[in-house]
Amino acid sequence: QVQLVESGGGLVQAGGSLRLSCAASGRTVSIYAMAWFRQAPGKEREFVARGSWSGGTTYYGDPVKGRFTISRDNGKNTMYLQMNSLKPEDTAVYYCAASTTSWGTRTSNYVYWGQGTQVTVSS
Questions:
Q1: Half-sphere exposure of 26 (CA within 13 A, CB side)
Q2: What is the distance between the alpha carbons of residues 120 and 92, in angstroms, rounded to a whole number?
Q3: Alpha carbon of 66 to those of 1, 22, 59, 83, 92: distances in Å?
Q4: Nearest-CA neighbor of 94 among 10, 25, 2, 24?
Q5: DSSP string across the chain
Q6: What is the pLDDT of residues 14-31, one digit of tens each?
Q7: HSE of 7 in the Cβ direction (CA atoms, 13 Å)?
């Protein structure tokens, strides 16, 4: 019903910035909230940021507070994650996700997932 396609990942030096995009298609009217997660090798998938598809509240995980910003562009049905002051520990595969019912911060709250985009931050 909903398809999510991420882009914008890549290699960046510590202190640099990247902007991730997640394009939503299909039955986008069913989306209640969208979020970004990340997963480093050998670690659990971690919550990064949550936004509302309709402009509700936003929330950020502690490791990225003050550095990352989640936003959306209704005209393009696209969600963004602006990542500033990147650190090597931000290196991970970043996933966008959509929920049809919940605004939680757990992976189980989200039913639709993108394919992931690699972000690598060098020291």
A1: 12
A2: 7
A3: 34, 21, 11, 10, 19
A4: 10
A5: -EEEEEE--EEEETT--EEEEEEEEESGGG--EEEEEEE-TTS--EEEEEEETTS---EE-GGGTTTEEEEEEGGGTEEEEEE-S--GGG-EEEEEEEESS---SSGGG--EE---EEEEEE-
A6: 999 999 999 999 999 898
A7: 4
- The closest alpha carbon to 74, from 29, 117, 8, belongs to 29
Residue whose entry in the numeric block shows the structure tokens 């985009």: 117
Q: How confident is the model over 55-83, as pLDDT tens digits?
A: 568 999 999 999 999 998 877 789 999 99
d(CA 6, CA 23): 6
For the chain, give the number of residues.
123
Note the maximum CA span of the chain: 41
CA 9, 118, 114 angle in degrees (round to 5)?
Answer: 90
